[in-house]
Amino acid sequence: MKTDAYRVKEGKKVKLAEWKTDEDGGLEQHDAKVLTKELQEQLAEWQERLYAERKQALLIVLQARDAGGKDGVVKHVVGSFNPNGLTIAPFKVPTEEELAHDFLWRIHAQVPGKGMIGVFNRSHYEDVLVTRVYDMIDDKTAKARLRHIRHFEELLADSGTRILKFYLHISRDEQKRRLQDRLDEPGKHWKFNPGDLKDREHWTQFTAAYQDALGTSTADAPWYVIPADHKWYRDLLISQILLDTLKDMDPKYPKTSFDPAEIRIE
Amino acid sequence: MKTDAYRVKEGKKVKLAEWKTDEDGGLEQHDAKVLTKELQEQLAEWQERLYAERKQALLIVLQARDAGGKDGVVKHVVGSFNPNGLTIAPFKVPTEEELAHDFLWRIHAQVPGKGMIGVFNRSHYEDVLVTRVYDMIDDKTAKARLRHIRHFEELLADSGTRILKFYLHISRDEQKRRLQDRLDEPGKHWKFNPGDLKDREHWTQFTAAYQDALGTSTADAPWYVIPADHKWYRDLLISQILLDTLKDMDPKYPKTSFDPAEIRIE
């Protein structure tokens, strides 16, 4: 499956209205799930190589509007990885101590070490999204932050960390369906946050802020705009991109420092 | 399935020689795997309740000799949990900064928050195991540490954290088979650590140290001696104990602060 069409090209100004939310690749749900399962079996093998090699890391950044599917990707895609080689960092509203530092301080502390796959459920990008929409920072600060983000990601890339950034792209109607679903099903009430409705009122401002954030797409830290109205297509697409990326990183089992034939176990 | 026989009773002095390593519950591997899969589907539901409730936490401590199966349990049992509600803390040889603090300092920083399941792959128990075998601490220090550990676990229990401690019990022969396997299969060379052979020479001293550590079994933080020669029986048994424990903790979906029928999504 080709995924290049979903990658934001470096230097290209994104208009989200031009990106489809309901793409399904011409697939049925059942077939997509079978394909995803197959990809994830291959992913497990490549993850082991990455872990054994201990020379590179993979950082997965998940961003989306409320109900966009970040938790779903963690459960259904990231959940197929071996937890031994995985770190998950969910970023919430910053604490007082975190706010007393630069905005990348708490982020930097959570990047994956060599051999690991790290997942950011929300990320440093919140600092140029929600903060902008609610006028907590001005445009000049936002612009400076976007520059700091590029430099920070460059530092990680130079140290052997490949970065994949996914924007899970849902339509306004699909968000409504998902939020309504949380109200209608008692077992999902705990997922409903009345504050999400306030963010929904600022749909257009969030779109503008996301479009600027997507401008930080580079070869080492590309953004992908993932059509996410169909959860199963979203999962398939991300699994494919992860697999292509790991293959491209090409981690290798390390050479041993000993001769296995020489060792006797008493 | 009854698991009580594998729990170390409070105040009981353990003699590991009396605990079987090759128990299989009278099951065949295939049937055990089917049963484990069924248990794990139930575990996923209970994990969601724990996560939604956000009032209690579950801490799983894994200890074993080299090749005892800690990583296997993380992959095959813990791997069935939703990563959104999971933290994994692998404890390695302490760093200089960690050694500059009391031995529980780095441990405390990694305990799971409310709603989470936390896994310690090795733990504070290393500080009364490897350190003792290699005479890095004397018996008086070991005794004091065991007391500090009991107090520390009591603190966690009082704050709503249930603790399950698993000692994965393998025979000396089984360890030999597994280490030899790592030498024989090129794809497993990276798992072989020549230092494991030194620990193997100290088998009896490790047994003695483990027996003392198992003395910290309490109602809130019990130790289980898991027969672990058969990986599939080990996984089944641990899955069953996790499920029984989560059911006993009985987390509940929280009541909403809003009336779902009153909310209109524009």
Task: Summarize the topology.
The structure is a homodimer of 266-residue chains.
Chain A (H helix, E strand, L loop, with lengths): L28 H25 L3 E8 L5 H7 L9 E5 L5 H4 L5 H4 L8 E5 L8 H4 L5 H20 L2 E9 L2 H13 L10 H7 L1 H11 L9 E5 L3 H19 L17
Parallel strand pairs in A: 1-3, 1-4, 2-3, 4-5
Structure description:
2 copies of one chain form a homodimer. With 266 residues, chain A is an alpha/beta fold. Chain A has a single domain (4-250), classed as 3-Layer(aba) Sandwich (Rossmann fold), CATH 3.40.50.300. Chain A is 43% helix and 12% strand. Chain A contains 10 helices and 5 strands, in the order αβαβααβααβαααβα. In chain A, strands 2-3-1-4-5 form a 5-stranded parallel β-sheet, sandwiched between helices. In chain A, α1 (29-53) runs parallel beside α10 (231-249). Chain A starts with 28 loop residues before the first helix and ends in a 17-residue tail after the last helix.
Q: What string, H for helix and E for strand, traces the elements of chain A in order? A: HEHEHHEHHEHHHEH
The level-1 CATH class of chain A = Alpha Beta
Number of strands of chain A: 5
How many DSSP H or I helices of chain A? 10
CATH superfamily of chain A: P-loop containing nucleotide triphosphate hydrolases
Terminal CA distance of chain A reads: 51 Å
Radius of gyration of chain A using CA atoms only: 20 Å
Structural class assignment of chain A: alpha/beta
- Order of adjacent strands in the largest pleated sheet of chain A: 2-3-1-4-5
Shape assignment of chain A: globular
Q: Enter the CATH topology name of chain A.
A: Rossmann fold
Fraction in helix of chain A: 40-55%
CATH architecture annotation name of chain A: 3-Layer(aba) Sandwich
Oligomeric category:
homodimer
Please give the largest β-sheet of chain A: 5 strands, parallel
Mean pLDDT of chain A: 97
Instruction: Bin the strand percentage of chain A.
Output: 5-15%
Parts with pLDDT < 50 across at least 5 consecutive residues of chain A: none
Number of domains of chain A: 1
